[in-house]
Amino acid sequence: LAPAGPDSHLYYSNRSAAHFALGDFERSIRDGERSVALAPTSNAGTHVRLGEAHLSLGQDEEAADAFEAAILIDPDNGRAREMLKGVRGAEVEVAKSPVESASDGEGGRGAVWPTPFDEDGGGGGDGDGENEEVEARAMEHKDNGNSHMSSKEYERALGEYNAAIGLSPSGPNSHVYYSNRAAAYCYLAEYRLASEDCRTSIDLKPDYEKAHSRLGLSLYFLEDYRGAVEAYKASLDLDPRNKASVSYLAKAKASLAEREETERRWSRTIREETDEDEEEDDNRTGVTSTGLTSIVTAENDVIKVHESVIEVERSFEVEEDGVEVDATGQVAFDPFVMDDDEV
To answer: Higher-confidence residue: 6 or 311?
Structure first.
């Protein structure tokens, strides 16, 4: 209902806590990162939980970054300091950042907090030099991820994008990191996680066209055809020449129309059988010869819908030289390719 509203960071943080309690650390991290992206300084506890989730997955560097972020928000957070000491192996002094509470006095979304990516270079420490170093490290992880994507090493790419986001969850290039991670998730058939990353990317930069097109494809494979249509329309509003979005918009519209027709057939079949007389034995079962024909037709329509999804999945074949082509022999448009705008 409110993926980017004034309190959405709380919703994501709370859901992150629920995932953590269930031992689903990857999803806990996903929601924690979305919360941090929307409100970087809202709650030190969110960062602490992120760190513990990373630690549970053996991701020590990402965990340390999260604990340090928690200490910057709340220098007296004993849990964050204890966990950071455990990761680093020694007491680590984290510089305090100046915080001026907003009118609510809570240091929440309205607080004046000079993040590492403010234009004035705030955020404590060494100013611009330190901020640029953090972003440079994030960009290095992103570049490594892109290299792994080119080599079809999607799990390794995922790890690099995780590291980039851990360093820079809401920086000037974070929308690219989330969008690229969505691409990796799609290749791993994790379409729901991909759609969440696309939405985070869009939250950070609404006019980032690639996030809209990748959202469209992830929703398509989730069989949310209506959502896919809307995402592709948004993509084409930003880039009317995007051939992949033009193609997949047509596929999404066709699948949506087919599903709606199937639903109409089922609804019509049910109404006809409900209105029939119950004088004959067959009628008392609710199945007439006419009804059976309608049901078989409707079931075939459902099968066609699923076959259309499978057909899209198989629409790309790889030739021996590694060039992807579609069924007609034309070079396929890969919406996940890492283009020059993602550097």
So the answer is: 6
Helices and strands, number each (H, E), in the chain: 14, 2
Residues in the chain, overall count: 343
Give the residues across from 331 on adjacent strands.
325
How many Å apart are CA 83 and CA 96, to the nearest integer? 18
pLDDT mean over 189-198 = 92
Q: Could you count the other beta carbons within 10 Å of the beta carbon of residue 62?
A: 22
What is the SS3 assignment for 153? Answer: coil
pLDDT for 302 beyond 50: no
Average pLDDT rounded to a whole number, residues 277-293: 49
| pLDDT classification of 314: cutoffs 50, 70, 90 | very low
Average pLDDT, rounded, for the chain: 74
The widest CA-to-CA distance across the chain, in whole angstroms, is: 87
Q: What is the predicted pLDDT for the residue at 63?
A: 87
| Cα 62 from chain centre | 19
Query: In this structure, are residues 201 and 170 in contact, taking their beta carbons and an 8 Å threshold?
Result: no
Handedness of CA 230, 232, 235, 237 (dihedral sign): negative
**C-alpha closest to that of 327 among 335, 318, 337:** 318
Q: What is the pairing mode between strands 324-326 and 316-318?
A: antiparallel
- Structural tokens at position 84: 């950071």
Least confident piece of the model among 61-65, 73-77, 263-267, 314-318: 314-318
Through-space distance between the first and last CA atoms of the chain, rounded to whole angstroms:
33
In whole angstroms, what is the distance from residue 199 CA to residue 4 CA?
9
CA 240-194-187 angle, 5° bins:
90
Burial class (CB in 10 A: 0-12, 13-18, 19+), 136: exposed
